[in-house]
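About this split. The held-out portion is used to measure sequence recovery: a designer receives only the structure tokens and must propose an amino acid at every position. Recovery is the fraction of positions where the proposal matches the reference. Here is one held-out target exactly as it appears in the evaluation file.
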């Protein structure tokens, strides 16, 4: 196992004092872990119950893991560079979507690029259908979340951006937060997935209005 460039064997981790391992985790993790002591105890528990590989096999596995870790680090650096480039490009483009708290240049760029000209869509329902955020059976009144499914058609990339963006918006906007929590409570199966899809559908209305009118979003005041 390798932590922050320092390699430890499973036996070393298993025998290390919990407090010492917790301090090491807290230091290398820059205080991001809420309970480093509990995490250290779980790591030790896993280390003690882990199957020990023969030395010849262990070296090969470690090499494969090292290559995988380097690949992941490289991909993350590339993503960071791409996000920075997108942010720079978006500074020169009129973008009202970023007035919605929680939406940054990357997600707004994805939404704008997949929608294109908003005027080619007659209404927010057309945008929802284009994104695949429509359900196979429409019901007025109470929404039967258990027995309805999203349509299989639609622009999956736009759907991805809208759902990801809605997940951020519901953490910042009180109205979307209340709606998400209400849908979460009403859905017994896969509550987060379905509540988020319904929140994204509601978010489509806001996206359509903001883009159609080219206006900044001003959230309603919460009393």
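Reference sequence for scoring:
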């Amino acid at each position: 196992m390798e932590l922050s460039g320092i390699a430890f064997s499973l036996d070393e981790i298993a025998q290390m004092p919990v407090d010492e391992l917790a301090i090491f985790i807290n230091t290398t993790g820059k205080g991001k872990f809420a309970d480093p002591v509990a995490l250290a105890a779980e790591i030790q528990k896993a280390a003690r119950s882990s199957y020990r590989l023969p030395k010849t096999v262990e070296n090969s596995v470690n090499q494969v893991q090292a290559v995988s870790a380097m690949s992941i680090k490289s991909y993350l650096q590339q993503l960071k560079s791409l996000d920075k480039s997108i942010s720079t490009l978006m500074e020169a483009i009129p973008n009202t979507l970023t007035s919605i708290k929680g939406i940054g240049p990357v997600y707004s760029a994805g939404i704008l690029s997949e929608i294109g000209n908003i005027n080619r869509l007659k209404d927010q329902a057309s945008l929802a259908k284009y994104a695949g955020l429509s359900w196979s059976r429409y019901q007025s009144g109470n929404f039967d979340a258990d027995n309805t499914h999203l349509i299989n058609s639609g622009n999956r990339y736009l759907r991805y951006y809208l759902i990801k963006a809605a997940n951020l918006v519901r953490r910042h906007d009180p109205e979307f937060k209340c709606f998400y929590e209400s849908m979460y409570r009403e859905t017994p199966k896969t509550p987060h997935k379905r509540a988020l899809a319904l929140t994204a559908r509601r978010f489509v209305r806001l996206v359509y209005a903001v883009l159609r009118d080219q206006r900044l979003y001003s959230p309603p005041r919460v009393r």
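Annotator remark: The mean pLDDT is 85.
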